[in-house]
TrEMBL record:
GO-annotated cellular components: mitochondrion
Keyword Membrane found: no
Keyword terms of this UniProt record: Aminoacyl-tRNA synthetase, ATP-binding, Ligase, Nucleotide-binding, Protein biosynthesis, RNA-binding, tRNA-binding
EC number: 6.1.1.7
Protein name per the record: alanine--tRNA ligase
GO process terms (BP): alanyl-tRNA aminoacylation
Length: 165
């Protein structure tokens, strides 16, 4: 989260007023929802050993880091992009539910980011009926069609065994 201190200074225990920047939230939501779709696409194309290692979602782009030992082939990149474009075209519903952490961990196929600590209760975001189910506190679309488009621009290495799209 980011904020702007309009005046004065902050001390521990200071009282503050927060406002949600709904315009920014609306512009970030497509990229955030599509990171969930991209995560699912990578597992489908590269296999279930793929794990999310980080991401960035802002109003201009998404960036997704994942475990994979080698560069993706042109065919793998094309298949990944096609999967994501199909999700946009299919207008898959994006839903969220808050539930006890132990219950959420039992959901078939649920994904969580390795090393993250999740609250109890936890928010679970689902894309479509079979595309993605993940622990997530982020802002999302109501369906993937609202993303309007998807394009893979670049895939590269960021560390040994970690790739970035």
């Amino acid at each position: 989260h980011t904020g702007i201190l309009a005046s004065g200074s902050l001390q521990a225990g200071s009282s503050v007023t927060c406002r949600v920047d709904y315009d920014r939230r609306r512009s970030v939501a497509p990229n955030h929802s599509m990171t969930h779709v991209l995560n699912a696409a990578l597992r489908k194309v590269l296999g279930d050993t793929v794990e999310q290692r980080g991401s960035l979602c802002n109003d201009e782009k998404l960036r997704f880091d994942f475990s994979h030992k080698k560069a993706m082939t042109a065919k793998q990149l094309r298949s990944t992009e096609e999967y994501c474009k199909a999700a946009v075209e299919n207008a898959e519903p994006v839903t969220a539910a808050v539930m006890p952490l132990d219950e959420a961990k039992e959901i078939d196929g649920v994904r969580a980011v390795f090393g993250e600590v999740y609250p109890d209760p936890v928010r679970v975001v689902s894309v479509g009926e079979e595309t993605s189910v993940e622990f997530c506190g982020g802002t999302h679309l109501s369906n993937t069609k609202e993303a309007e488009a998807f394009a893979l621009v670049e895939e590269s290495a960021v560390a040994k065994g970690i790739r970035r799209i």
